[in-house]
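Input record (one chain):
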Amino acid sequence: MKKNPEMPHIPEGKYTRVMIRGEAYAVQASRVKAVVKKPEVRRVPGAPAFIEGVAAIDGRIVPVLNPVKRLDLEKQDPESSHSLTSGSMSLVMVEVGNVLYGLSVEHVADIMDISAAVMEPVNPVMTDDQFPFIAAMAKMDDQLVYVLNIDGLVLSGLHIKQKARDQYDHFAGGLTQKLAAPPDRDETKYLIFSAGRELFCMESFLLKSVVPAGLVEKSPDTPPGMAGLLPTLDGMLPVVDLSVKLGIDPSLDSGDGRVVVVDTEKCQYGVQVDGVSEFLRLSPGEIKPVPPGIAAAGVEHIKGIAMPEGENRMFTLLDAFKLMTTREMDSFSRRDDINMKSSDKESVESPKEALVPLLMVATADMTFALPIAEVFEVIRVGAVKHVPGTPAHILGLITVRGEPLPLMNLHCRLDLVPASDSSMEKTSSRRAVVIHWNQQPFAIEVDSVSGIVKVASEKIAAPPEIIKNVDTRFLSGLVLSEESNTSAMLLDLKALINQEL
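The corresponding structure, as predicted from the sequence alone:
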């Protein structure tokens, strides 16, 4: 008996639906490596007509395919208003072998599940064996979706010597491994803060805490350039007024700012600033020396200029060891009510209970705490790419160091006051706390960063079963900082990313 010929195998599962000339096409989601806004494309002389050119993306030179030309759609609809030259176009990055290609599309519609039941192979009458661009067709939500054969779309009809293809595939594979490897550079985390209209930064390992400036006590004998004294559990600390010290007009009343408490090898003291905004990781190459014209002016408290790669921003890097002069430190150290000893020196003389450093953030007029050990950095909220079908508490994707990260809205996740449309639009003042928890990076959107505290583990109490207006499933404790006289709810990171809750 003659066997019936087998139909070609078409994998079922998740597919990325893209729009080209107003029609829906699908690409196996496992083949999609990224989706990026279409950058400038440079034409390559002699390349096939369907290759628009090449684009520089994340350290790679990526060939960009024009599917309208490749699928011969211009002849079918020459008057179409859908153009691939629009500035709003996207590139769907797909990998063939080890080589990355960009597929130019109008936009990515969604990610969908296509089962074998709704797919059928293409009738051979409608295809050319030499150009097998369409692998199958599927009927989804009353819409016809063409399932693309990515290998055929890229390679069919091209006369490429196998040796040349193997050589480039080997090169591309090595480049992929190199780019995927951790950066071969030492990075340091910096705290970004403001005084007046100026932005400054300081190494985070020198920070002990960040507390409200309203705690600073003023006295008639406070020396010029000093804001006053900060009460702590170990005694009073002198506080430098950064605006006065550097001759900057402050943008806020002193009580509305923050005090950054630093702990050098020599001593502890506070720096009063208008506000803290971000944690950034910077490499040595992103720290530039002070220009000679400025260095000659005797500003020894400035140790460099931080210029984050890929950003049009600069921060003045302050030297915590020189912000207070020797004369100022000597005058304060002679006072009995002031204790400027470094905590490292004190711990040798009188060991204390272990302290847990926490980042305090504010959202919906409430204060929450996150373990600083899990905080990778704190950045400004940039453009957010909405992804259809995601949970309500996921705003979409943001780009952090070239990688897409899900951005969680804390209002929605904790069932707080719902985030209004107007508040969602005002992203310039909002911050994203980038978390690396259990090798799962994600970002949490907050209204602001309110401080840094160190709390004894014994001072972290279990959360009550019920807290007004807060879903306690996402809390791991209640924090009370006696030093800064603040309280906060400690977030449970494991629960936050658990999609089943």
